[in-house]
Design brief:
The chain is an alpha/beta fold. It is 51% helix and 13% strand. It is built from 26 helices and 19 strands. The strands form 4 sheets. The chain has an 8-stranded mixed sheet with strand order 12-19-18-13-17-14-16-15, sandwiched between helices.
């Protein structure tokens, strides 16, 4: 960064890098942000008329948009849903009472089928281009399939024929009074057609219109609530919106009733089929049980809770089995006892008393009883005879012989016959016991089978009874069922728009236009190549700000405002003090004054600065180095020649020959002299260097006014000769890119860049930092008349 070399004088000490007019170092970030905001504010003020124009255009666009964006209306309605429906629980294999779950009422209301029916019912698929052109479209209908698009019905001038066009292409022709558009799906026979008139209208698919209508419909059913709230928003006529909602609710209630009745009908049909299956199953179970009972009625059964018919056959069978078992045991014991008696009988025969020990042998055996009785009789007779006779008596011997036969032959034979009978009886009883035990082992399986069949009958009977009850309830419900939904609040057309977009559009237009204008201003300010802000000189060009010159304007009587003239005087004084501090005490100040472009005010600064140094008592030499368009001679009202050009062309001339005095005794001027084609080459000659070197011997301050840097090498040649240069940057005019390029070139030359002077500064906004209003000040040019740049230009 280029900086002013440190120096001290007796007038005013200035720190390195300080601005001569009172500037300070960059402050904290808050100060930088404030400067940036001030810069943006200055840009807004600069382009205020453009901002106003853009905002005005945005307001006009907003007003135009309000004509094409109609206000929005909203209609509301409320449906009541039976609370019992939500509380019903599934009470069977099929859910018959509840139509849909609680979350399904909203989906059913927003179904496309329902909205499409409303679209077809109200003809929302048709939209005439003109709202008042609805009379010919009375009774307009469409088929299931229609060709959408923009249509035009054109009636001939005689009113006898018509032509239907779709997107300017002919669809059909016909006679007025016939059906129109059957080929594209219309069901339309217009009644009121005006001769020579065109009717424009558009047709959309009913499904598409239904989807569009659904997007504008809002429905909500809070959890646990029985109130379904419905709202429809649109830009159509509010009466039409209310009609749509009411028709929608009516169709919704009809649909819920139809769906519920259909659901109940299907439920009844399902129950009927299930009832028939249950009845057939019951009949089959009963038949199987009946067959089983018929087949097992003669077989022994196990004890338990069985029917009476089975129970009648149960106890005798068991009793007979156990009776046979006991009988078998008894016969077996008697047989064994008889065998023991016969086996152990002595040779004398069987003792009848031993036979009586086995009652079964005697009881029922008449032969044995008779033989034993006969034996007893014979033995009684034998004992009687022995009382009378001896053993040798024939009668006694006959009785002994008879009793021996009875004991040894008759009774044993009869006993053996009984033994055979016992054996036969035992075998028979054993066979009966074996058969009965086999049958008794089969009793549990038959019992289990019978219980299973009885369970099947009970289950089938229970299911049949339940389904029969449900079937009767469903038939009764089907005959007397009412919808679970009712309209609580019908839709009413609002008198005022719910949402009027006009104020929002206007506010949006104003804010949008203002935002766009400000953004555009900031962008223009950022891309603007002209110098406008002090930080552009310090940050971009690397120049310290030495001072400022205010913008001079004329009042009504075409004179300079005294306040601005005073500010110019103070500004020049500050610049003078700052420049003087760049040289050591007693050393002359040699300075070239230039600017990047023409019209930046370098001549104004040079003239006023020279006068200021002269007023301060410094012997000042002002050289008009602008050999192309120099005008300082006219400014100070002196002769234009001889001047600098004559001195450079004629080495014999001395400094005294080309110096012209001015109205101020401490200020002299060397004019540019006569114009010459070789003026630029002469500026680089040794003669100019000798002039600059000899001037400090007679003057304290040597100021050189040069052409702009963008003109050529004139200013650089003068800067090399004097060794230092001061640039003038004019607010809103100086090209920063050109200035940066020239400064980069100057960096390679032996020129000390002291800084920049800001010209044409308006004391407001960001430049308020560089201005102040003194209580009193004497304008520099009151005596010599060089206050503003207009005077310099006029005299040029």
């Amino acid at each position: 960064m280029r900086t002013i070399l440190p120096a001290t004088t007796g007038e005013m000490p200035i720190d390195r890098g300080l601005v001569a007019s009172g500037a300070r170092h960059p402050g904290p970030p808050s100060a930088v942000t404030l400067k940036r905001l001030q810069r943006y504010f200055g840009a807004v003020k600069q382009y205020k008329w453009m901002i106003l124009a853009i905002v005005g255009a945005a307001i006009g666009a907003g007003l135009l948009a309000t004509r094409f964006v109609p206000p929005s209306y909203e209609v509301n309605a409320t449906l009541w849903i039976s609370a019992e429906t939500a509380r019903r629980q599934d009470r069977g294999p099929i859910r018959g009472q509840e139509l849909v779950a609680a979350s399904g009422w909203v989906e059913l209301l927003r179904s496309v089928a329902l909205s499409e029916s409303i679209v077809r019912q109200l003809g929302l698929y048709l939209k005439p281009s003109e709202a008042n052109d609805s009379l010919p479209f009375i009774g307009f209908g469409i088929k299931d399939h229609v060709v959408p698009g923009l249509y035009t019905l054109r009636v001939d001038g005689d009113g006898q024929k018509y032509a239907l066009l779709r997107k300017k292409e002919l669809v059909e022709r016909g006679v007025v009074g016939d059906s129109v558009g059957r080929s594209v799906g219309f069901l339309w026979q217009p009644k009121a057609l005006t001769a020579g008139k065109e009717h424009d209208f558009s047709i959309v698919e009913p499904h598409e219109a239904a989807v569009t209508l659904l997007n504008a419909l809002n429905a909500s059913l809070p959890d646990g609530s029985s109130f379904l709230r419905v709202s429809l928003t649109g830009k159509d006529r509010p009466i039409l919106l209310a009609t749509i909602v009411n028709r929608w609710l009516e169709a919704y209630i009809r649909m819920t009733g139809q769906l519920k009745r259909r659901n109940l009908t299907e439920f009844v049909g399902i129950l009927d089929g299930q009832l028939n299956l249950a009845e057939a199953r019951l009949r089959g179970a009963e038949s199987a049980l009946e067959n089983f009972r018929v087949q097992t009625i003669t077989l022994p059964q196990e004890g338990g809770p069985v029917a009476a018919g089975v129970e009648q056959t149960r106890d005798p069978v068991f009793q007979d089995y156990f009776k046979t078992k006991l009988e078998y045991e008894s016969v077996h014991r008697d047989r064994e006892a008889l065998e023991h008696i016969l086996r152990d009988a002595p040779s004398a025969g069987v003792d009848p008393e031993m036979l009586f020990a086995v009652p079964a042998v005697v009881v029922g055996n008449e032969r044995l009883k008779a033989a034993i009785g006969e034996l007893a009789t014979k033995e009684a007779q034998l004992r009687t005879a022995r009382l009378t006779y001896t053993d040798k008596y024939k009668g006694v011997q006959d009785l002994e012989r008879a009793t021996g036969i009875l004991r040894q032959q008759t009774i044993p034979d009869i006993a053996r016959a009984s033994l055979e009978e016992f054996k036969l009886r035992e075998a028979q009883l054993a066979s009966r016991i074996d058969g009965a035990s086999t049958e008794l082992r089969r009793i549990p399986s038959r019992t289990i089978e019978e219980m299973r069949l009885r369970r099947e009958v009970a289950v089938a009977e229970n299911l049949y009874t339940t389904l029969l009850t449900r079937y009767g309830e469903a038939k009764l419900t089907e005959a007397s069922e009412t919808p679970d939904v009712a309209v609580l609040d019908s839709a009413v057309a609002p008198n005022r728009p719910t949402r009027n977009t006009a104020p929002k559009l206007m506010l949006l237009a104003v804010l949008g236009g203002l935002g766009f204008a400000i953004a555009l201003v900031i962008v223009l300010d950022m891309v603007d190549a002209r110098f406008r802000y002090p930080e552009q000189a310090t940050d971009e060009l690397g120049l310290d700000i030495v001072g400022f010159m205010p913008r001079l304007t004329q009042n009504r009587n075409r004179s300079i405002d005294p306040l601005l003239a005073a500010q110019l005087t103070e500004g020049i004084r500050c610049i003078r003090v700052g420049l003087r501090s760049t040289t050591p005490d007693g050393a002359p100040l040699m300075l070239t004054i230039s600017s990047p472009c023409s019209g930046d005010g370098k001549s104004l600064l040079a003239a006023n600065l020279a006068v200021s140094f002269a007023e301060a008592g410094y012997k000042t030499l002002l050289i008009d180095g602008d050999v192309r368009r120099g005008a300082l001679a006219s400014t100070f009202n002196v002769r234009a020649s001889p001047g600098l050009m004559e001195y450079l062309r004629a080495p014999e001339l001395s400094l005294r020959d080309i110096v012209h005095p001015t109205l101020h005794p401490n200020l002299v001027l060397i004019p540019s002299g006569a114009r010459s084609r070789r003026g630029v080459e002469l500026l680089a000659s040794e003669q100019l260097r000798r002039l600059i070197v000899s001037a400090p011997e007679q003057f304290d301050v040597v100021l050189v006014d040069t052409p702009p840097l963008g003109v050529g090498v004139d200013a650089f040649a003068m800067g090399i000769a004097t060794g230092s240069m001061l640039l003038v940057l004019r607010t809103g005019k100086t090209n920063r890119k050109l200035a940066e390029a020239k400064l980069e070139f100057a960096d390679r030359l032996p020129i000390r860049m002291l800084g920049a002077v800001l010209n044409d500064v308006r004391a407001q906004g960001i430049y308020e930092y560089y201005s102040y209003t003194p209580r009193f000040s004497e304008p520099i040019g009151e005596r010599i008349g060089i206050v503003d740049e207009g005077t310099v230009r006029a005299r040029a």
